[in-house]
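Q: Could you write out the predicted structure for this multi-component system? I'm mainly interested in how the pieces pack against one another.
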Amino acid sequence: MTIHNIEIAAKFNQIADLLEIQGENPFRIRAYRNAARELESLPQEITDMIQQGVDLTTLPTIGDDLAKKIEVMVKTGEIPYLKKLETQVPLVLSELLKVEGLGPKRVKTLFQKLNVQNADDLRKVIESGKLRTIKGFGEKLEQKISAGMLHVQEYSKRTRLSDAFPIVESFIKYFKKLKEVKQVECAGSFRRRRETVGDLDILISSNQAEKIITHFVNYEEVDEILSQGDTRSSVRLHSGIQVDLRVVDEASYGAALLYFTGSKAHNIAIRKMAVKMRLKINEYGIYRGEEQLAGKTEKDVYKQIGLAYIEPEMREDRGEIVLAQKNELPKLITLNDIKGDLHCHTTASDGDASIEQMVEKAQALNYEYIALTEHSKSLTIAHGLDEKRLLQQLELIDKLNAKLKKFVILKSMEVDILEDGTLDLSEDVLKQLDLTVCAVHSKFNLSERKQTERILRAMDNPYFNIFAHPTGRLINKRQPYAIDLDKIMQAAKERGCVLELNAQPERMELDDVHCLQAKNRGVKIVISTDSHSTSQLDNMKFGVFQARRGWLEAKDVINTHSLKELQRLLKRD
DNA sequence: GCCGTTTTCGGCCCGACTGTTTTCAGTCG
């Protein structure tokens, strides 16, 4: 049995929930949550680390006690301490914590006074009017809890970054019309470009907070006003997304932006640094006693604690602060660095646009090259090309290339990796291609060992260049297939293969942690849109966002290079 | 429960809004 990091993290979070309901020491609770977060973003599996004899207490947030609990969990699949807690407080109570308006204190009260253990119990005590008999539970709170229960599922779902974009853009536009607005930005995980966002955090600088708040709650897409104060307000939009607004003075804008961009872990880390220097950071600025030392820009605030400016995408407390101290932060890749797209389809297989249309759009994006990567014959549903049709396309590409100036169409194909690890094209044809983009399109449910072996065998083929769709996941829809990416990366490094970061917003395979892992291993990445239409070529930005979250620089990504250099990088030994 | 360039004990990030109080606890970000 393999215990994954996220499973241990989940157990730690459950322990934290139960301790919270019991009213335990908040710092002890935080210790469990910190450890859970650490485990979630750990690039290596704990199980492997234990096998390699790594001392877990060398990890931040993990001490002697938690290290022991992790080891027991890995060995037995359970944490006895959690079992013990469950005999005192039913675990299902943690579900109630997800209801808006209910926190640990209220859940405990409901459990003790009315024996409420789950949503059903809660509904019953509301209907019978018993809830209101409890001290501290009034009419308004009852309404809030009732509404909250209806939406637990719906609102806990995170929105894909690409879906949040148009919502944010119209919000920003709406606020820019107001002359009282000096600066406006969407902070939070949106600004950190996480692949999904929970709610949206809009920050505005203005000296007319009241007017801004009124403008905010009157926005036409607002369905419900959740709170409305002097400087902050929250609403729920018709789309179900919650939006939080905060208004500050210009003198505090940078500090507030820093605070509302997060992540929470990053904020806590820099505030701790400030405390050590006898300073205090809050959303209004950085202070020595009453005196504000900085606050107008984020850069000023970082500078006061001896840090270089850290890009939002890196603010996850994954080691970026140490690098900022040493002034050794990576120079993150930007959209401007991209010189071409190496994964696109045309009408020849399952795309919507012709070759000419795709080329025209790629040229408009100032690209120097594009690779046409139709599906191969096994993928009949996508009208995959057999050898004969592919050869016809190659001829056509030659003709078009002869006419093009300062732009090259690369001959390629999205080759299916069959179940036995062979490629879905004969060597005769493979050798006529400039590069191959190889991917799994069937048999997703093989065991991790078999799936990994399948890919490794495919990589042994000297014509294998890019491993596309490396996890097969669809955000909010399909889990990644079981695969040992660590082994794959090792093999890619040895064989000179490249891993694809697929920029389709619903895919985003690899994730940020994978990117960082690849970078550390020296494995090259290609960011590709997998476009099936001309407009999808614009999805490149989402791939770049993800790459930035994974600390990638232009040099780590092969399609930032000129054609000549690209060809050198693709060459296998 | 973790952690250490003032500490192996005593700290642990910080503030706004709501509802139900009648001066503040609870929740949230």
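A: Regarding packing and overall arrangement: The first helix of chain A runs from residue 5 to 21.
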